[in-house]
Design brief:
This protein is mostly helical and about 120 residues long. Helix content is about 45%, strand content about 0%.
């Protein structure tokens, strides 16, 4: 599964971000799991809760795609990776992830989305 995720991430990186993407939307290609990658419990869960849950929680505009706990996030990890790499999430007009935050989530996914 980790190899499949890496392939999806690399393919999306090759396609680049669309023309409407913010200039700050960039990702670094990772050939392997970075040694300093966070886990869900050591930071990714908090980051997603703070930055994604306003829309991806009960009552949010994307409540059908909950990002409120590890089980939901883990089940959507391929979609999350694709949308982060193609810079389609967060959507235009919404507060954007910093380059560091985007990279932290992608590194976490590359490392197998560990709890």
């Amino acid at each position: 599964m980790q190899k499949l995720l890496l392939i999806v991430l690399l393919a999306a990186l090759l396609s680049g971000c669309g023309p409407a993407a913010a200039p700050a939307c960039s990702v670094e290609e990772q050939a392997a799991c970075p040694a300093n990658a966070l886990t869900y419990d050591t930071g990714i869960g908090t980051l997603l809760s703070e930055r994604c849950s306003p829309c991806h929680a009960a009552g949010g505009v994307e409540a059908q795609r909950l990002l409120t706990d590890y089980a939901h996030v883990s089940g959507l990890r391929m979609s999350i990776a694709s949308q982060l790499v193609t810079c389609s999430m967060p959507p235009a007009g919404a507060p954007q992830l910093s380059a560091s935050e985007r990279q932290q989530v992608l590194d976490w996914l590359t490392c197998g989305a560990k709890k």
